[in-house]
Amino acid sequence: MSYPLTDIEGVDNDTALLLKSAGVRSTEKLLEAARTSRGRKALAAKTGLDEKKLLAFANAADCMRVRGISKEYADLLRAAGVDTVKELKYRNPANLAQAMAEANRKRKCVRLLPSEKLIVRWIEHAKKLTLKITY
Fold first, then answer.
1. Would you state the pLDDT for residue 1?
2. Which of 38, 90, 32, 88 is nearest to 61 (CA)?
3. Using CA atoms, how far apart are residues 65 and 1, in angstroms rounded to an integer?
């Protein structure tokens, strides 16, 4: 599923305009453009954005491919230490639920925490997704 670039934490309107000037108009296009180190270098050259920042944006967009993970839940996952789909697929649901609750207490990312049952579904879906980003 594709989302607007501004749904990614850290992508403000100015950053979105820079990305759009390079032909990247959605999270799906961002994943295509920034999936490899070479792609991130090229995108950094076109936009003036830092490669590490582009990788963080691509990782967030990648997590948003998991069914049920909205912008807010992607932010909460990142706050709980899960930056990539690859990391998510190896997480223990109970431990992740606990880490997300702790992260939400500190950062107030969401009003309603995901249930452990929902986290299990995320993990199962993440296991079925092909990995898009190379490092």
1. 73
2. 32
3. 6
DSSP designation for 70: -
Handedness of CA 61, 62, 64, 69 (dihedral sign): negative
Q: DSSP 3-state assignment of 59?
A: helix
Does residue 17 register a pLDDT over 80? yes
The answer to whether 13 and 34 are in contact (CB under 8 A) is no
pLDDT in tens, 72-127: 999 999 999 999 999 999 999 999 999 999 999 999 999 999 999 999 999 999 99
CA-CA-CA-CA dihedral for 78, 52, 29, 21, to nearest 10: 130
What is the value of pTM for the model shown?
A: 0.89
* Nearest residue to 57 via CA among 114, 12, 22, 122: 12
Report phi then psi at 7, rounded to 5: -75, -10
The answer to whether residues 37 and 134 touch, using CB atoms and an 8 Å cutoff, is yes
Query: Please, what is the Cα angle at 77 between 41 and 56, to 5 degrees?
Result: 10
> What is the distance, to the nearest Å, from the Cα of residue 46 to the centroid of all Cα atoms in its chain?
22
